[in-house]
């Protein structure tokens, strides 16, 4: 092999984490609009097809919380959501008044993090939902990226998406998005009088914050992997200020990647 080609391969291996880095799902992280992050109280209507990993988690009769498609069969959400009597997920839609645009799939397994305590739900607020069957990827349905064996760069701003309560106090009809800014942990610890550690991060809204109905929804950022920008799942909405206009705490998804991968492997059959 040409010595220059060998050197290039070694350099690429280092850039991707010593040759061992990979994505949980290779066909991930591409929406219809990957060129902007727009600034669900205080949010804006998201562009159709921009977040094809966005999930609505439902009980038999109502919308309960948000979630993210991470493989063809698994959804990531909050453990505080999985304690509800959820039965199904809705994928691929944008407008809640257009139910025919959503794909409805039953949930056959809920797997909360083993350290999550419903009586003290401020830690380990992360859960996997296994769908009853795999879904086919398309422009409307596509997973968000999770990086395996490669630490991701720290970011200052996250994109939050959800159908949660907006400024008028009602759940949003159209999928909303807003930008959240990272804060030092001490700000949220002081606000909520609970310990915020490295398995979480503290945020505040640039134009808005997460609200009721947004729990379990994704906080994402566009990052370079190899030579291509993709959307990565970095956090899940956990809890926040009752006014939805102050601070919020998110579960740090990157802290739980090993658990996510092992749990999917154990529950894939």
TrEMBL record:
Report the GO molecular function annotations. Answer: serine-type endopeptidase activity
List the subcellular locations.
Answer: Secreted
Task: Provide the GO biological process annotations.
Answer: proteolysis
Q: What is this protein called?
A: GM15552
Family label: Belongs to the peptidase S1 family. CLIP subfamily.
GO CC terms of this entry: extracellular region
Q: What is its main location?
A: secreted
Known Gene3D superfamilies for this protein?
Answer: Trypsin-like serine proteases (2.40.10.10)
Which InterPro entries does its entry note? Peptidase_S1_PA (IPR009003), Peptidase_S1_PA_chymotrypsin (IPR043504), Peptidase_S1A (IPR001314), Ser/Thr_Proteases_Immune/Dev (IPR051487), Trypsin_dom (IPR001254)
Task: Say which species the protein is native to.
Answer: Drosophila sechellia
Enumerate the UniProt keywords alphabetically: Disulfide bond, Hydrolase, Protease, Secreted, Serine protease, Signal, Zymogen
- Output the Pfam families linked to this UniProt entry: Trypsin (PF00089)
Renumbered to this chain, the signal peptide range is 1-21
State the encoding gene.
Answer: Dsec\GM15552
Give the CDD domains listed for this entry.
Answer: Tryp_SPc
């Amino acid at each position: 092999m040409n010595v220059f080609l060998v050197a290039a391969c070694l350099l690429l291996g280092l850039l991707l984490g010593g040759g061992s880095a990979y994505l949980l799902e290779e066909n991930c992280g591409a929406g219809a609009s990957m060129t902007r992050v727009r600034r669900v109280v205080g949010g804006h209507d998201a562009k159709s097809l921009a977040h094809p990993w966005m999930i609505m988690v439902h009980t038999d009769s109502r919308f309960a919380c948000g979630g993210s498609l991470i493989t063809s069969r698994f959804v990531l959400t909050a453990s505080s959501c999985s304690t509800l009597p959820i039965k199904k997920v809705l994928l691929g839609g944008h407008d809640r008044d257009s139910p025919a645009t959503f794909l409805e799939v039953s949930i056959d397994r809920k797997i909360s993090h083993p350290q999550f305590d419903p009586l003290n739900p401020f830690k380990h607020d992360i859960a996997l939902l296994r769908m009853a069957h795999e879904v086919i990827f398309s422009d409307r349905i596509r997973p968000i990226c999770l990086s395996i064996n490669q630490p991701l760069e720290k970011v200052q701003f996250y994109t939050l998406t959800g159908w949660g309560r907006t400024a008028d106090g009602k759940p949003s009809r159209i999928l909303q998005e807003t930008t959240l800014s990272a804060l030092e942990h001490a700000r949220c610890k002081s606000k909520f009088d609970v310990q915020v550690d490295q398995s979480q991060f503290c945020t505040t809204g640039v134009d808005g914050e997460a609200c009721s109905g947004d729990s379990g929804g994704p906080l994402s950022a566009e990052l370079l992997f190899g030579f291509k920008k993709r959307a990565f799942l970095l956090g899940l909405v956990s809890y926040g200020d009752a006014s939805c206009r102050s601070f919020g705490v998110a579960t740090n998804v990157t802290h739980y990647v090993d658990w996510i991968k092992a749990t999917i492997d154990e529950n894939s059959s």
